[in-house]
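Sequence design from tokenized structure. All designs in this work follow the same two-part layout: the structure record, then the generated sequence. An example of the structure record is given first.
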């Protein structure tokens, strides 16, 4: 009896083992239809990788089941999203809707950034921000942090759960992503972990997109060593492979005429070598598909969806070889059903919280930014459903503060619920920052040149205090040092003591001829109070200082020198919801300032200088119209000769010399049309434009500042570029007045 019992137990155990084996097999791969197991290899190629979608479309039409996918760079994106169970039509629709320029730009739309982060747009500073620690100058790790790519990928693979650690063999279609360990120069095959991080690492083009740190190791684009991961597909599942090569090949000799061209060719040589080795490893049963992409640029994402058809054509050209892998409709539907059945059950998000691993930035900043947002802050809005799209959009806006290298989050699953832990990764090159810049302005009579530098020391205390120093040397010399102290971490209310030293020439013209100028120097100490947010800033303050004005009119000193004490006030109100102050295409910018000295307070002069500038812009496609107006006047007292209102120059009275029109009250209206003729890659700028303007100005002229009611119409035509160095223009202006002055302008920045 005992022996019988043992026999029954043994047979039962064998049955359980067999059943367990079958269960394990079904959980590690989709149902295998008849025929060889097919591995799909999707190579890297930047924008050229969109052709992979066309190939996948044909494979579905021909009912070819894919047992596993291995991808590199753009191939890892298309392959990883498809392997996670996203239907091909949905992938196509989502990629078609992407604003690629925005995706490669870390900043949110400019109107979502706080005003303090917009200030540099009004200065002659390059967009490149360097770090400073002691005597060391630090560079950012890439021109793009790439966090928006992660957000896009997380939304696209949301149905697979965004689990922090998963076995890629358990995806609906088993998957491998290739990256390069930049620390030791070896290839990395990701088989498990965070799916989105693996895809993002595979796409990190060195120098363009910052490396990804995974488990303490930095990874960049896998194409450097494995652009066609044939071995990874064979090692995962494949009896045969279908390989799609979308690489760009080598540059022609005519393109090797710059340091950039040589650098790109070095990368291409590395890729070409490993691609050649992968292709040579193919056997007679394998299929190589090489879409005819010609010289289509790997960076041309804006037109990349046109390559879907190219991928289709290439796959159809291999139909005879692919047909042997086709299965019956019944078998294919069974395989598709098994793929869908492997989608996991995703727990609901019950909490969003902020990680506190930062060293400088107060985590309450992130908490405050996320608070009171339906679909994000589930503590304040427990009745709302969590929205990944809302979270991603909000974190992009938080990034615009300028405190973080990138925004990140991961999912923590506990007992059937999940928490999203948000982290703002502080800039590795902070907390002290340097920017440099140049300003150049030339008309028919003069050339002005300025060199600028800016230093910021951030997060001096837990409320986000900042010490900023700006230096400009050249036509106008200026040094400004300001300590900005918020009252709370999220209110925007601040106090800002400021020191301002400035030397500026004021040129006087008579009948179009330069007759002399003032050299005006002032030193002032300010104390400002204000509030700022994404809409703009209100700033009110008082100042005290000294002014020295020295005339240089030759033998006929029309105006005296001045040495005097000044005490007064300043009011500045800015509403800034324009997409670009220089090449505005959509939005509104309004600036009001009122500066005055007050004799009763101890000032030796007594006058007011008030200015209002309004700008509105609207675009349709590549066409844009700007309407702008400017008024300057004195609310009391006449403006002194050492502080007149100024007009003249490009778009400020085109045809006249810069600052030729001056007086006690001035006015200007203008309309500008521009057409975007070309887009610039995001690291280099926004676009190249051609355009024209119509303007009307009115100003009192001459050194006696007598009122002149004559309206002076003018016009200009220009070519401009919005670059990382700042706005650049080549323009011709003509004024319709008695002497019909003309001017050719060359400008970089706004001197």
């Amino acid at each position: 009896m005992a022996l019988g019992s043992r026999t029954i137990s043994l047979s039962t155990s064998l049955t359980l083992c067999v059943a367990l084996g079958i269960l394990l097999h079904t959980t590690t791969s989709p149902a295998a239809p008849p025929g060889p197991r097919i591995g799909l290899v999707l190579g890297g190629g930047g924008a050229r990788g969109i052709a992979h979608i066309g190939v996948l479309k044909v494979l579905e039409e021909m009912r070819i089941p894919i047992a596993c996918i291995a991808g590199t760079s753009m191939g890892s994106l298309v392959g990883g999203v498809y392997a996670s169970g996203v239907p091909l039509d949905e992938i196509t629709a989502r990629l078609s809707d992407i604003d690629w320029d925005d995706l490669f730009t870390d900043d949110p739309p400019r109107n979502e950034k706080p005003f303090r982060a917009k200030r540099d747009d009004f200065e002659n500073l390059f967009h490149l921000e360097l770090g400073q620690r002691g005597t060391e100058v630090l560079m950012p790790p890439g021109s793009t942090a790439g966090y928006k790519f992660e957000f896009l990928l997380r939304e696209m693979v949301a149905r697979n759960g965004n689990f922090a650690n998963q076995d890629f063999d358990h995806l609906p279609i088993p998957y491998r992503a290739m990256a390069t360990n930049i620390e030791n120069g070896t290839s990395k095959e990701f088989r498990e972990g965070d799916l989105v991080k693996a895809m993002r690492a595979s796409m990190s083009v060195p120098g363009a997109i910052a490396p990804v740190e995974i488990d303490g190791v930095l990874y960049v684009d896998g194409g450097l060593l494995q652009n066609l991961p044939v071995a990874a597909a064979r090692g995962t599942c494949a009896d045969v492979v279908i390989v799609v090569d979308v690489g760009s090949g080598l540059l022609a000799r005519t393109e090797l005429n710059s340091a950039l061209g040589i650098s790109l060719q070095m990368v291409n040589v590395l890729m070409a070598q490993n691609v050649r080795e992968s292709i040579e490893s193919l056997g007679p049963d394998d299929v190589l598909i090489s879409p005819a992409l010609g010289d289509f640029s790997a960076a041309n994402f804006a037109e990349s969806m046109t390559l879907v058809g190219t991928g289709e054509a290439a796959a159809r050209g291999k139909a005879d070889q692919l047909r042997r892998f086709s299965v019956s409709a019944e078998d294919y539907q069974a395989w598709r059903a098994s793929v869908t059945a492997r989608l996991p059950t995703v727990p609901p998000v019950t909490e969003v919280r902020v990680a506190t691993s930062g060293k400088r930035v107060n985590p309450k900043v992130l908490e405050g930014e996320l608070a009171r947002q339906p679909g994000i802050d589930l503590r304040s809005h427990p009745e709302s459903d969590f929205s990944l799209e809302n979270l991603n959009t909000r974190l992009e806006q938080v990034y615009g503060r300028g405190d973080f290298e990138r925004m990140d989050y991961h999912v923590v699953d506990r007992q059937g619920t999940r928490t999203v832990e948000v982290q703002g990764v502080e800039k590795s090159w902070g907390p002290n920052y340097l920017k440099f810049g140049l300003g150049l302005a030339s008309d028919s009579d003069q050339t002005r040149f300025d060199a600028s530098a800016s230093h910021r020391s951030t997060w001096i205390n837990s409320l986000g205090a900042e010490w900023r120093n700006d230096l400009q040397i050249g036509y106008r010399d200026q040094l400004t040092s300001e300590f900005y102290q918020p009252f709370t971490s999220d209110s925007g209310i601040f106090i800002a003591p400021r020191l301002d030293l400035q030397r500026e020439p004021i040129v006087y013209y008579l009948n179009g001829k330069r007759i002399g100028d003032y050299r005006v120097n002032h030193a002032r100490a300010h104390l400002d109070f204000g509030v700022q947010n994404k809409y703009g800033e209100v700033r009110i303050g008082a100042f005290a200082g000294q002014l020295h004005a020295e005339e240089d009119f030759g033998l006929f000193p029309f105006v005296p020198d001045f040495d005097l004490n000044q005490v007064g006030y300043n009011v500045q109100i800015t509403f800034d919801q324009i997409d670009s102050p220089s090449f505005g295409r959509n939005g509104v910018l309004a600036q009001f300032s009122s500066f005055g000295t007050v004799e009763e307070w101890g000032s030796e002069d007594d006058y007011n200088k008030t200015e209002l500038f309004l700008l509105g812009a609207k675009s349709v496609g590549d066409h844009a119209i700007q309407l702008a107006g400017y008024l300057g006047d004195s609310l009391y007292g006449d403006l002194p000769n050492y502080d007149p209102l100024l007009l003249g120059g490009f778009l400020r009275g085109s045809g006249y010399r810069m600052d030729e029109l001056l007086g006690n009250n001035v006015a200007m209206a203008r309309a500008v049309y521009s057409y975007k003729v070309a887009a610039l890659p995001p690291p280099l700028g926004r676009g190249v434009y051609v355009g024209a303007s119509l303007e009307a100005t009115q100003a009192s002229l001459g050194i006696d500042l007598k009122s002149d009611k004559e309206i002076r119409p003018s016009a200009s035509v220009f070519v401009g570029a919005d670059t990382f160095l700042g706005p650049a223009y080549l323009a011709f202006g003509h004024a319709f007045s008695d002497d019909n002055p003309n001017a050719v302008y060359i400008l970089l920045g706004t001197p």
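Residues 712 and 737 are 6 Å apart (CA to CA). We note this feature because it recurs in several other targets discussed in the main text.
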